[in-house]
C-alpha cells in the first residue's frame, strides 16, 4: 500500500472510530432519557450500569485515538 493510500486508510479508520463514539454516546443519551422516567430502582440501576459500560467503551476508543494520533508527534 502506497503512502497516500495508507494515509487515506488511516483517515477512514479514524473517522470510523469517531462515528462509533458518536453512536455509543447516542446510546448513553437514550439510556439517560430512560432513567429520567418513573421506574423501579432496580431498572434505574440497570440503566446506570449500562451507561457506565458505554462510557468505558467510549473512553477506550478515545484513548486509542489519542494514542494513535500522537504517534510521530514530538
Quickly describe the structure.
The protein has one domain. The protein has 2 helices and no strands.
Characterise the protein shown here:
With 74 residues, this protein is mainly alpha-helical. The protein has one domain (19-70). Helix content is 85%, strand content 0%. It is built from two helices and no strands. The radius of gyration is 17 Å and the shape is elongated. The model has no long low-confidence stretch (mean pLDDT 94).
Oligomer: single chain
Query: CA-to-CA gap between the ends?
Result: 26 Å
Counting DSSP H or I runs of 4 or more residues, the number of helices is 2
Largest sheet: none
Spans of at least 5 consecutive residues whose pLDDT stays below 50 are none
Dominant shape: elongated
Q: Could you state the order of secondary-structure elements as H and E?
A: HH
Compute the average pLDDT: 94
How much helicity do the residues have?
over 70%
Tell me the fraction of residues in β-strands, as a range: under 5%
Number of domain modules = 1
* Radius of gyration from the alpha-carbon trace, in angstroms: 17 Å
Please tally the β strands and state the result: 0
Given helix and strand content, the structural type is mainly alpha
Amino acid at each position: 500500500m502506497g503512502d497516500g493510500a495508507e494515509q487515506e486508510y488511516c483517515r477512514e479508520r479514524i473517522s470510523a472510530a469517531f462515528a462509533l463514539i458518536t453512536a455509543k454516546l447516542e446510546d448513553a443519551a437514550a439510556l439517560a432519557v430512560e432513567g429520567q422516567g418513573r421506574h423501579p430502582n432496580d431498572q434505574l440501576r440497570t440503566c446506570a450500569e449500562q451507561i457506565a459500560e458505554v462510557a468505558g467503551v467510549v473512553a477506550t476508543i478515545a484513548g486509542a485515538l489519542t494514542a494513535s494520533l500522537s504517534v510521530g508527534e514530538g
